[in-house]
Amino acid sequence: MRLRIFVIAALLVGGFLIVTSKTNWGRQRILAPIRDAGGQIWSGPSVARSASLGPDEENNIEIYKSAHLATVNITSTVYRRTIFLEIYPSKDQGSGFLISGDGKILTNNHVVTNDRQLEVTLSDQTRYPAKLVTRDEANDLALIQITPRKKLTWLRLGDSDSLQVGQKVLAIGNPFGLNGTLTTGVVSSLGRSIRGENNQELEGLIQTDAAINFGNSGGPLLDSGGNVIGINTAILGPNGGSIGIGFAMPINRAKALLEDYQAGRKRPRLGVSVVPVSGDYADALDLPTQGGLLIQEVEPGSAAARAGLRAGRETVQIGNVQLLIGGDLITAIDGKPIDREDAISRALSRKRAGDTLELTIFRSGRTMNVRVKLGEEGPI
Description:
Pdz3 Domain; mainly beta; globular; 5 helices; 6-stranded antiparallel barrel
């Protein structure tokens, strides 16, 4: 007796069980629909045909499509000597972004330090030599130029004075050489002060939780309209890695640099270092409760020194803060009360070398106004 072999293929097609005979493959017979535990016909898992994008995702994608084309990689080369006097090239990388179709690029000053050969790589991987046009060391800004063979995509500059904590921002750059990297976040705080390279104090920075890493320096920080509102400058984190605390230089500082360059003017300087004091700190120092900016140092020969501003003379410890006291407390600038740490930098961004700045100061128990004629270039 010949054994007839049947193959039962449990093929779930439209919720029915199909049985097929091996000896007669062409004949198929529907037995019964498959039902679940509740008695409902099972029709198989639902499959998403396409991914839908939310409005915020679409906004991110739209901004990236245009902005990454204007974001560049900057390689700076300096030739060093080994202990055996052999010469070798040392290369550093950073980011920048085009602000004109003819090849003008904004970046950080520390990305393009002195005596280096600069090379710019565009998003399409074409490379150009670059030259330094002008710099603002006090605000860690630099303008460089390439000579492209075609008109390039460039970015619009926004307004950093109108920023609010909590608004969305996007950072684009080349962290660790990974070109065209996008990260997103929000403005975490405004008016931050940090110590940059060579122990230089950078004031009035934008703090963001958008991930910024080595190689992002000089790249654009954008708002939800695709406008540049800052230049990614520094990070705070162990071993140089991002922990969600990054800092960007407000774009209005760069706009002032560009205006001065176009007009052939030099940047103004005041020549002081300050710390903010208010509330309990001010009470402890017998200063007005509303506080202000307490002068710690006055640079010899600066505009502040010529105007007779006084620096602190005695060191005191208040809580975990160490201050020099005995100096002038700046309570207002050009009639406007001090309301944030970067008040001096913001005021200087609207001034030119040779302009006058009127400071309201508290000294030895009384308030007075001092007019300061600003000098050229350098720290505040």
